[in-house]
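name: query_chain
kind: protein
chains: 1
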Amino acid sequence: MQKRPATLDAHNRLILAFIAALVTFFLTLGHLKLSVQSIAVWNAFAWTVILALSINLASSLV
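structure:
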């Protein structure tokens, strides 16, 4: 079976999510309270994992 370019394995999705979380952390640094900032960072991480997984699943169905 040939690997499609849109498929990402779990390690790549995790690295992508960490990068999104770091970007969110640095963009919100000093603008939000620590509790709100931690929720924003977690949401960025979680949504990136969910979106990357859904893209991966959608590309495997085609």
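note: The radius of gyration is 14 Å.
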